[in-house]
Specification:
Serine Threonine Protein Phosphatase 5, Tetratricopeptide repeat; 719 residues
Length: 719
């Protein structure tokens, strides 16, 4: 009969294992409409909650068993070195708060997220037995299958999301601003993020379709493989398809190497092998032929004998900042990558700080960035996982991360070349490694997200469960008898439970703050000032160090101040203006590195300048600080020119507008304003040139035509 201590221990193990099932099955599906960022933010919080509960249960087991419970793996040293690199990069970061939590609205990639992934890894290898892995494999596949059931209807114009929104309740795609039918994104919010998840799962689903003994499970794996591949096609993701191709190539090479060393190449011609390959791969090939891909024509196109032309400069209707607009994604990546390398040169060893790319990039932003269609977007990633690591965590961070991948590759290769290697273990190792390679290839042209990082550490954990060290570890094979718990043990359990509860509450409060922020932001746009103040103040109170909340609240106070001031309530307007300035001061105290906060501050003072023109000088000072953080930002130069002109400083206005035009030669607004300022300086010839430029771009612009005629008449008069 089990003692109460043994019962507690077993329940804790069950809780841990159920947590991993939820991690693989629930997190891919989870997103919410009530937060500011619908997808990654909610997934990250879900991972935090599960990591807290799993780690709390793990610590409780140590108390119950009165011993340190730990499973050593081949990856421990590189993982610990990577953790140390992230810790040091956070300590010496240009903004430690961002490095600790991650960039606002994502949080993935911050030090806390890395700690969570590592704790999940070590808990998994410690508590999961090799014989139970199939349950987790199929949990991952079920999660992936449900995601594909969400994604595939989107391709045909039916998004389940539109059914879930209470104010919509229509089974179409009209609830999304993005063209989800052209490029599906399901529960991930972005086609390339969904594609990365799919290509990481595909090798595993293919393996299970080939090698699972139970027919029903094998058929489900084959069906999941097909729906995953269809989803990949419907994302129209170049990086996803390329990553899958590289992963398949790696799997083919390693599989051939294994069979050659085992002298079993003839198995490829085996009837069972061919039959399973047929029902797994034939539907995939038919799907590729029928629907085509971004690289290959569809059957309909072939029948029409016209192949699609994929232009590098073709506009794509997607959410990704690199894919919106008319500029080539390759062109934009080259520019951003140059900037990332420049950041690394300034911070060679530990980088600018974990997740601080949005701050450090703009000081090194190439001026050519002004020439692309996404010139005015905020880039918080280098759109290359490895360069992003190099820029934000330095050579130390990149090398330790690479060491993790390299060690995993060595573990796989050792399994493949082992003389007495188990066939199933080897096939699983090859599938997992090919998934990691596919993901890494995709990440080379993008960046990691929450769920693919969960899968990465899940795969790394399983690879290590297959090493000789893990198989023979006495930690898993034998467990000492559990002694009766002493009073001190019960106290420790209560402390662990209380601390775990506090952390869970903290995560829930973080979400509550963001929900309030999302509501307040929407209410501000509708000029519902009282409700907006209440919700934004709630968000600010719950997360006082989150500068984004105080920044938005400050702007809302300024907008309300103008509304009251223009209606004649000068006293209330003055009070709100004072509060707005105070909140803006607090924002910059909490985060002086984010250039957008200086732009908001300038916007606040420009609004308040309607009540008192003296605020123009403070708006100008804020933008001068912003240009110091982003010296190639043509938009800030333009705004400085406008403010200088409003202050009557025509010479300064001309200087800033000329810089804006030099940085972005096709900046029509800057050309127009520069022409107007040149008119005031009575430089009519130069002004005429600007107006002529505007007319070449906008032939029907009557204002430019009138200004040109005025400039020419003044030029003739002077002569």
């Amino acid at each position: 009969m089990l003692t109460i201590e043994e019962k507690i221990d077993r329940q804790l193990v069950r809780l841990i294992r159920m947590g991993f099932v939820l991690l693989l099955l629930f997190v891919p599906l989870y997103f919410a409409f009530d937060t500011k960022e619908l997808f990654e933010f909610n997934k990250m919080l879900a991972v935090y909650l599960l990591a807290i509960v799993i780690t709390g249960a793990w610590l409780a087991r140590m108390v119950v068993q009165r011993r340190f419970i730990w499973q050593a793996t081949a990856l421990d040293i590189p993982l610990l070195l990577f953790l140390i690199s992230q810790l040091l990069s956070t300590i010496f970061s240009i903004h430690p708060y961002t490095s600790l939590l991650g960039y606002y609205s994502r949080f993935h990639g911050g030090l806390l997220s890395t700690i969570s992934y590592l704790l999940l890894y070590w808990s998994f290898v410690t508590h999961v037995r090799k014989k139970d892995l199939s349950a987790y494999f199929f949990s991952a596949l079920i999660g992936g299958f449900l995601v594909t059931l969400y994604a595939i209807p989107e391709h045909f114009g039916h998004s389940p999301s539109c059914l879930l929104i209470s104010d919509w309740r229509t089974f179409d795609a009209s609830c999304w601003k993005q063209d989800v039918q052209s490029r599906v994104f399901a529960t991930f919010g972005q086609p390339n993020w969904l594609a990365a998840y799919v290509i990481t799962l595909l090798p595993l689903s293919s393996l299970l379709a080939f090698l699972t003994q139970r027919l029903s499970a094998r058929l489900f794996a084959a069906l999941t493989t097909l729906t995953l591949f269809l989803t990949l096609l419907f994302t129209q993701s170049r990086s996803g398809l390329l990553g899958l191709a590289v992963g398949v190539a790696v799997a083919g090479v390693l599989g051939t190497l294994y069979l050659a060393r085992q002298k079993k190449l003839r198995v490829i011609g085996n009837r069972i092998f061919l039959r399973r390959a047929l029902y797994t791969l034939l539907p995939v090939c038919i799907a590729l032929l029928f629907f085509g891909s971004i690289y290959t024509p569809s059957l309909q196109t072939l029948l029409q004998r016209t192949a699609p032309v994929i232009s590098e400069n073709q506009t794509e209707v997607v959410v990704n900042r690199l894919d919106v607009g008319g500029s080539s994604s390759a062109e934009i990546r080259k520019i951003v990558w140059r900037g990332a390398l420049a950041v690394w040169k300034r911070y060679p060893w530990l980088g600018s700080g974990v997740e601080t790319f949005a701050y450090s990039y703009y000081l090194d932003r190439p001026v050519e960035h002004n020439q692309v269609s996404e010139w005015n977007f905020l880039y918080n990633k280098a759109h290359n996982e490895f360069l992003n690591l190099l820029a934000t965590t330095g050579i130390v961070g990149l090398l330790t991360y690479s060491a993790i991948l390299l060690t995993a590759g060595v573990v796989t290769l050792r399994q493949v070349t082992m003389t007495a290697a188990n066939r199933l273990d080897t096939a699983t190792a090859i599938a997992l490694w090919s998934g990691i390679v596919a993901l890494s290839t995709s990440n080379f042209f993008g960046f990691s997200t929450v769920m693919v990082t969960v899968l990465l550490f899940f795969y790394l954990a399983i690879l290590n469960l297959m090493t000789e060290k893990a198989r023979s570890s006495p930690t898993k094979l034998a467990q000492p008898p559990i002694k009766n718990l002493r009073l001190s043990s019960w106290v420790n359990l209560a402390i662990i439970a209380g601390f775990t509860g506090m952390l869970v509450f903290s995560v829930l409060q973080t979400r509550r703050a963001d929900v309030a922020y999302a509501r307040g932001s929407a209410e501000t746009e509708q000029h519902l000032w009282e409700a907006a103040f209440q919700n934004l103040t709630t968000a600010h109170t719950l997360a006082p160090l989150e500068a984004q909340y105080s920044d938005t609240l400050a702007l809302t106070y300024a907008q309300a101040a103008i509304a009251l001031g223009l209606s004649g309530d000068a006293t209330s307007a003055s009070q709100l203006a004072t509060t707005a300035i105070s909140l803006s001061d607090q924002t910059l105290t909490n985060n002086p590195e984010q250039r957008n906060f200086y732009k908001t501050r300038a916007q606040i003072f420009l609004l308040l300048a309607q009540l008192d023109p003296l605020f123009f000088s403070q708006a100008r000072a804020a933008l001068e600080t912003a240009i110091g953080l982003a010296p190639t930002d043509a938009k800030t130069m333009y705004n400085l020119g406008i403010i200088s002109g409003n202050q009557g400083d025509t010479a300064a206005a001309v200087k800033w507008l000329q810089q804006a035009v030099a940085a972005k030669p096709d900046y029509d607004s800057a050309h127009w304003e520069l022409g107007k300022q040149l008119l005031q300086l009575e430089n009519y010839s130069a002004a005429a040139n600007k107006f002529e430029y505007i007319l070449t771009r906008q032939p029907g612009n009557e204002a430019a035509q009138q200004a040109l005629e005025l400039a020419k008449s003044q030029t003739a008069h002077d002569k």
